[in-house]
Amino acid sequence: MRSYRTLFRTPEYTPFLLSFAAHAAAQTIGGLALGTLVYRATGSPLLSALSMFGPQLAQLLGAAFLLSGADRLPPRAVLTVISLAFAAGTAALALPGLPVWAVFAVLFLQGLVASLGGGVRGGLMNEILPANGYVLGRSVFNMLWGLVQMTGFAAGGALLAFLTPRLCLLLAAALYVASALVNHLGLTPRPPRSAGRPSFSATWRTNALLWSSRPRRLVYLGLWVPNGLVVGGDSLYISYAPAAAGTMYACGALGMFAGDLAVGRLVPPALRPRLATPLRLLLAVPYLFFVLRPSVPLSAVAAAVASVGFAASLVLQERLMSLTPDDLAGQALGLHTTGMVALQGIGALMAGTLAQLTSPATAMTLMAAASIAVTLTLFALERRLVPDGVSPDLRECGRTGR
Questions:
Q1: Residue pair 345/54 in contact by the 8 Å Cβ criterion
Q2: Where are the alpha helices (DSSP H) in 194-328?
Q3: Backbone φ and ψ of 295, nearest 5°
Q4: How many Cβ atoms are within 10 Å of 109's Cβ, its own excluded?
Q5: HEC string for 50-111
Q6: Proportion of the chain in helix, strand, coil states, percent, rounded to 5
Q7: How many C-beta atoms lie closer than 10 Å to residue 268's C-beta?
Q8: Measured at the alpha carbon of residue 54, what is the angle toward residues 377 and 264, in degrees to the nearest 5?
Q9: Are 39 and 318 a contacting pair, CB within 8 Å?
């Protein structure tokens, strides 16, 4: 599938995107409002960063207990419940006088609920689209995420100039409710993809199976670690430039949109596998210049250029799907999403700690340098895996019969 016209004629794809757009808009507006609220209350770059990205750490626990539900629960019902749970939690965060510890308790619960979201959405999209439409469909999904982030952070920054952070949180809660309605009204009820009840043992067993393949391990690490370190640095935008954080996030989202458009629509399929390492390097290199403490306009340009590199996830997800049986697609993508956001939370913790000890600019530079080092290490390991030049995908497919 190479045509957007064909893609959008696919039944249910449009409401699937609309429900995600409302959820993502709520996440961006609510995240910026909450990060600003916590920073104003505490003056701490660490707590501000953790309020935006720390809940993703809770998804590690959710992945251990709940992730088998990505293939063993009806997807429409799960997505609807997740959006309603986020609406309730975000409304609670807007309560006046809520202590900081209670804020993080609510965020922890939201992180547990969110651990199912990535796998359910990824598995459902895999069902909605034909086999040859996944990369194009995923690229549009990612482009939409970039557009919503760009407009959401820009709108969030503008709203915070006229409204209080708590009112912005209530707006985000209303958007979560809208997402739940679109899920319920626009998607067809589907049975689970796999038999059996979700459980800790089923989750752990399948995660162990997915992790047992060395090619898949390298793909997962490539999806998680370089991305997580850079996003950890991104979490410092508020403390780096408090008055222009929304602009920097919006420029980053613009770069992500451009990268997904280019890789998903313009790059020939035969060329895509070669772009994984260059794109991961691009994701980090522009942030090395933050050691010079550039002005806000130059920092925004650097964020936009770097964010083109997020398109590496398209290349690596395509590789992951080629290495994974169809009945495990939901949990495989859920493990990717959970690991990615958990590493982003760890990255935010690391970056916030470094910023407390040094400065936001220095911390962002160090996180970028670490991301580059990990990318080069993974590239060397991938080269060792295929000494005779055969694709790791083909080697693994040969062993599994796929």
A1: yes
A2: 200-211, 214-234, 237-240, 245-261, 276-284, 296-307, 312-322
A3: -65, 165
A4: 16
A5: HHHHCHHHHHHHHHHHHCCHHHHCCHHHHHHHHHHHHHHHHHHHCCCCCCHHHHHHHHHHHH
A6: 85, 0, 15
A7: 7
A8: 55
A9: no
Q: What is the pLDDT along the chain (402 residues), one digit of tens a residue?
A: 557 788 888 889 999 999 999 999 998 899 888 888 888 888 887 787 777 666 666 777 776 677 777 778 888 999 999 999 999 999 999 998 888 889 889 988 888 888 778 778 878 887 888 867 777 888 888 778 777 877 877 788 788 888 889 999 999 999 999 999 999 999 998 888 777 676 677 777 888 888 888 999 999 999 999 999 999 999 899 889 888 888 898 888 889 888 988 888 788 888 888 999 999 999 999 999 999 999 989 999 999 999 999 999 989 988 888 888 877 777 788 788 778 877 887 888 899 899 989 999 999 999 999 999 999 999 999 888 754 333 444 334 333 333
Is 285 in contact with 373 (CB distance < 8 Å)? no
CB atoms near residue 138 (< 10 Å): 22
